[in-house]
Design a protein that fits this description.
By secondary structure, the chain is of the alpha+beta class. Helix content is about 25%, strand content about 35%. Keywords: ANK repeat, Repeat.
Length: about 230
């Protein structure tokens, strides 16, 4: 019931290039954030390699759809619970992915208007990459940032639920959440990353990778990735 306080992006991930989230947390809890995008398709990921897998899928899907006259338009509906993508024409839900099953979301480094996220099918344990594009790099960036905020809201809600548990509650009923300070990981060139470990029922850890370019505007040049393992 108490107001949820989120860490700013720069604290949740020290190298995040922005200081503020796009939305109030209540928007992701009680409502949803909807974004229009083109759905390029989904593909099976046989060898999961984090954001490298999303980049490979983006490249393949862009090539396979470049001559298509009509690409489906969908609405991505994002909440702290996960992501739905909805047919823009008839409003039917095409797919629904829980936040705990989303393993990676990133922009395509070759085309910043294209982005993707990876999900795990719990029944088969297969991973699939879902690829989308927008007409504006700023919109793509906001979608990825909103996904990052959804992870942060889910994390803070888990902490709040843990604090609300009475002492002596059964271990099976307690949401166990452990966080550690972001730890920088070395990357090639100017690329930096930070990891926030989050051990809850979903056993998730959050890694955001930001690749700022020095010679142009942030929204036109920054590759922004958020990874949930």
């Amino acid at each position: 019931e108490s107001k949820l306080t989120l860490r700013p992006p720069s604290l949740a991930a020290p190298y995040a290039p922005v200081q503020n989230w796009q939305h109030q947390p209540e928007k992701l809890i009680f409502e949803s954030c909807g974004y229009e995008a083109n759905y390029l398709g989904s593909m099976l990921i046989k060898d999961l390699r984090g954001t490298e897998s999303t980049q490979d899928a983006c490249a393949k899907m862009r090539k396979s759809t470049e001559h298509m006259k009509k690409i489906p338009t969908i609405i991505l509906s994002i909440t702290y619970k996960g992501v739905k993508f909805i047919d823009a024409s008839n409003k039917n839900v095409i797919a629904e992915h829980e936040i705990r099953n989303i393993s990676c979301a990133a922009q395509d480094p070759e085309d910043l208007c294209t982005f993707a996220y990876i999900t795990k099918d719990l029944q088969t344990s297969h991973h699939y990459c879902h690829v989308f594009s927008t007409v504006d790099v700023n919109l793509t960036y906001e979608i990825i940032l909103t996904l990052g905020q959804a992870f942060e809201v889910a994390y803070q809600l888990a902490l709040q639920a843990q604090r609300a548990k009475p002492l002596g509650a059964g271990a099976g009923e307690t949401i166990e959440t452990k966080s550690s300070k972001p730890v920088p990981k070395p990357r090639a060139g100017t690329r930096k990353s930070a990891v926030l470990d989050q051990d809850s029922q979903s056993h998730a850890s959050v890694s955001w990778v930001v690749d700022p370019k020095q010679d142009s505007k942030r929204t036109l040049s920054t590759k922004y990735e958020t990874t949930i393992f």
